[in-house]
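Hey, can you fold this one?
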Amino acid sequence: MTGACRISSPSSTRRCPSAPPAIWLVAAAPAAIQPQIDEAKKAGVIVAVSSVPDQAQSMPGFAVVTNGRRTNEQVGEIEANMLARESKCAANVAVVSLPFPILKADTDKFKSTLASLCPQCKVSEVLLQPQDIGTPNATNTIVSKLQASPSTKYVYALAGNLTDGLSPALRQAGLNDVKIFGTTPDEAAIAALRDGSHAWWINVSSVMQGWTAFDGILRAIDTGKVVNDNGYPISILTPKNVPSGTGMPVEPATYREDFTALWKVK
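Sure. Predicted structure:
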């Protein structure tokens, strides 16, 4: 954002001709880029941020949050209800996550909902580091956790790539009765649904992330007001309902038509 345009007065909010109307970021902590947000505000630019628990501040400036706290808490609540039903309130589950604040919002809601529904259920956490994604260190850490706790029969992954290679690693370790579920699946997780080796995934897709972010930006432009978590079409995919083929499903399948009808464009 720095250097996008020059502003004649620090108090000016007029958009510079060379500035974009909006900038979209994903999982960028607003506090860490506050000087750039302030500069964007002076230039009349909307800053939209997805996958953060923060609240939008001003229009223009940090004006839009999508896939935020409300959406992620809803995901955590749904996941807890799914697990309570599937396990008949007898689950011992390991939550596999990354050190991002938005994922903590999901985890906290999952834990509190499950505790309310099934006080006898047990929850532990496995916190991986971003650099471990897709490496043997990630699968080894999860497998070691499950080996140390034989009663843990469920793995809740907060991103699909956290489970890449996990199913064969579990089989190799003799942990054949562990069920894997999660949110934000990748291609490998969808393939695992199709072959029946994963239990279910909440489909928070990158495609829908982009469309909902654009929708949030349009709402801010249209109303002149900040937009906080404008809603997210959540779907639950299982081996029984996952679309066939090899691609990544986006639900609902009519999302393009739905959004363009909402925006009243052709």
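The mean pLDDT is 92. Let me know if you want another pass with a different chain boundary.
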